[in-house]
Amino acid sequence: MEYSTFGRHVAVDTWGVDFDLLNNAEWLQAQMVEAAEACGATVMSVQSKQFEPQGATVLVLLSESHLSIHTYPEKGFAALDCYTCGETVDPALAIDYMVSVLKPETIHAKKLVRGMGELQVETPDIQQVSLTK
């Protein structure tokens, strides 16, 4: 079987996020797993770190690649990142999910199309989707 090198990498800086949301590694970990599942990815493992006096990092290892968040609660800032290989999992859906729960005031996003030669940089349509289960 031949595998494609095609992948999409969405990186988002969010500003104006509630301090308490960004300073809770346990809550962020649960949301990140939900985000991975929302985009159809397969979660392999999860690592998280709560920093003192504040801040958190969560890394979700996916069969398709990864989803991560690094937070700076004192600045209301979170850096989100999702890279997926292949065409079956859309990383923008995971980012949409996280944006919908973090509710930032401002979002700056870029999408890289990778594995096709020259990197293509695009501006993704990141939305604040409603959470319906």
Automatic annotation (TrEMBL):
Gene3D superfamilies tied to this protein: 3.30.160.750, S-adenosylmethionine decarboxylase domain (3.30.360.110)
Cofactor(s) this protein cannot do without: pyruvate
GO molecular function: adenosylmethionine decarboxylase activity
Sequence similarity: Belongs to the prokaryotic AdoMetDC family. Type 1 subfamily.
NCBIfam families per UniProt: SAM_DCase_Bsu
Catalyses which reaction(s): S-adenosyl-L-methionine + H(+) = S-adenosyl 3-(methylsulfanyl)propylamine + CO2
Sequence positions bearing Pyruvic acid (Ser): S65
Active site: S65 (schiff-base intermediate with substrate), H70 (proton acceptor), C85 (proton donor)
InterPro entries with a match to the protein in the record: AdoMetDC_C (IPR042286), AdoMetDC_fam_prok (IPR003826), AdoMetDC_N (IPR042284), S-AdoMet_deCO2ase_core (IPR016067), S-AdoMet_deCOase_pro-enz (IPR017716)
Biological or metabolic pathway of the protein: Amine and polyamine biosynthesis; S-adenosylmethioninamine biosynthesis; S-adenosylmethioninamine from S-adenosyl-L-methionine: step 1/1
This protein's UniProt keywords: Autocatalytic cleavage, Decarboxylase, Lyase, Polyamine biosynthesis, Pyruvate, S-adenosyl-L-methionine, Schiff base, Spermidine biosynthesis, Zymogen
EC number(s) from the headed UniProt entry: 4.1.1.50
Subunit structure and binding partners: Heterotetramer of two alpha and two beta chains arranged as a dimer of alpha/beta heterodimers.
Organism for this UniProt entry: Paenibacillus konkukensis
SUPFAM superfamilies per the UniProt record, alphabetical: S-adenosylmethionine decarboxylase
Cofactor remark: Binds 1 pyruvoyl group covalently per subunit.
Site (Cleavage (non-hydrolytic)): residue numbering on this chain: E64, S65
Post-translational modification: Is synthesized initially as an inactive proenzyme. Formation of the active enzyme involves a self-maturation process in which the active site pyruvoyl group is generated from an internal serine residue via an autocatalytic post-translational modification. Two non-identical subunits are generated from the proenzyme in this reaction, and the pyruvate is formed at the N-terminus of the alpha chain, which is derived from the carboxyl end of the proenzyme.
Entries under Pfam families matching the protein: AdoMet_dc
The protein's name in its UniProt record: S-adenosylmethionine decarboxylase proenzyme
Cited PANTHER family: S-ADENOSYLMETHIONINE DECARBOXYLASE PROENZYME
Gene behind this protein: speH
Function of the molecule: Catalyzes the decarboxylation of S-adenosylmethionine to S-adenosylmethioninamine (dcAdoMet), the propylamine donor required for the synthesis of the polyamines spermine and spermidine from the diamine putrescine.
